[in-house]
Amino acid sequence: MQELVLIQPSGTAHDELAREAAQAVARREFEERLAECGPLAYRVARGVLRNTADAEDVAQEALLRAYRRFDRLRDRTRFRGWLVRIAFRIALDRLRSAKRREQRDTLWSEPAHQPRVATAEDLAASTEFQEHLERALAELPEKFRIVLLLAAMEEHTIEEVATLLGIPVGTVKSRLFFGKKQLAEKLRCHVKTTKTS
Hints:
With 197 residues, the protein is mainly alpha-helical. Helix content is 79%, strand content 0%.
């Protein structure tokens, strides 16, 4: 009678199986968390960029980046806030890049490479005010801008913003107060400039 010998997988094969199993678990967990808060990446990007197509691109990039780095996220309960920060930073980068490109194109298309001086009619247009509002928001420090975006534009409660960003409620209130104050000052300067033109 022949003896049956069981062959144990080698250390590297066993390690490979364990790694694949861990990746499958992480992938399932990522998909579950994504189902809960995936659309939030788009809404954050849309709030920053004000452009549907660009917001969709940014949301896709944010989700891909989150997927690639998911294993580095130590506290998985903070996934929502982490995803918001990723989408917000990518959207800001896209906005800054577009503004630099627009400024460069405008500079070179104008006679004598001088930016066009806005007329009183231009400033009176509502689109001009919207552009000024977006510029004013872009000039705010990131910590104020993201709180304003989530609380005022996305209409999250202060407690929800605190949870999303992983900061205390008092810090959210403080940043919201100072962010609104700085934004109001920037808009007040725009109104004064418009009236004196």
